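Field reference: sequence -> structure
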Amino acid sequence: MEITQQAYILHARPYRETSLLATLLTAEQGKINAVIRGARGKGRAAMHKSALLQPFQKLLLQWRGKQHASSDLVTVRALEAEPLRFPLEGEASFCGLYINELLYRLLYPGVSVETLFGRYETALYELLKTQNRNQQAWVLRRFELQILTALGVEIQCREDAHQQPVQPQRLYHYYAEMGAYPLSDAGSEEIWLQESQQPVGQGVAIQGECLLKLADEAYCEICLPQWKALLRQILKTYLGPKPILARQLFR
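Structure field:
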């Protein structure tokens, strides 16, 4: 069975003499790993393929599905560029590469991500329009929320860990997979966490108002640093200790 999918390239590395081993994002097939033959070399055909296989270029791919797949690796049989392309430059391109790295590391192969695929394109379009770092940071925070939602991770922003409404003027410590604890309850919070007998990471300090605005996806320049710290801590739970390479580009 021939499978045809629109796709974006997330990551690629040399494979054998003239091929690439690429990880691609598709809507219906999700993340796939593919061999793309003839994509390296000095010939015209190889140079043409190499020019197409760039980040943020929408592609149309075709490969043959496997009835009894022993691995998730497919071989691309046909490849062409779609009209849609996002020519990101400078720090906007670093942001796009960061999003690609999140998708590459967090998504399971072969799981449909149709909604997330559309939001990925929206994020690239929004990055194309950004004019400063705050605007870029907001695009990244929204996409981080969206990928966590796609993974089934719920960030409870309207209620604290005691099922009480979050108060805008209160300061909280947010613990990944556990929720927000009012800072004024630090003593009882520590006891409660010990009694739960669950491993607890470092809590992230965040204002109640920022939690509520995050729930509404309401832009707030003052909240941007708190959102960054919160989402970085939550993502770390699923990314593990290996650092995000794209972050080094900003340095």
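Note: The CA atoms of residues 188 and 194 lie 10 Å apart.
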